[in-house]
Amino acid sequence: MRKMMLAAALAVVASGCSAKRIAAEPPTERLASSQTSVRAAEEVGAARVPEAATYLAYAQHQLATAQQLMSEGRYESADLQLQQAEADAQLAFALARTVPLENEARRMVEQVEQLRSNPR
Fold this sequence. Notes:
By secondary structure, the chain is mostly helical. The chain has helices at residues 2-23, 28-43, 50-71, 75-117.
């Protein structure tokens, strides 16, 4: 009976170790996806839109941190950094596209209101 329990315990430990190895692969797909998101945010000019620039900087920093973690073999931590980098890059992308449009729309509304208040 003791031998069976010991064997069962060893089997559980061994399966846990093998599962950990499977989960500890480099997150190369997420790295590529995060890099693509950062590049897209850069290409739409996120660095020139103050509301977006902050998130772009976060994403770039998280990407660099993730690459360092990957080089150290800390794949789970790297994956978390990459998830955050991708989210921040996507937010920077969205802000870079919408904030200038919102600002232009506000300017146009102000012009229309000014024309209405000062008819010729």
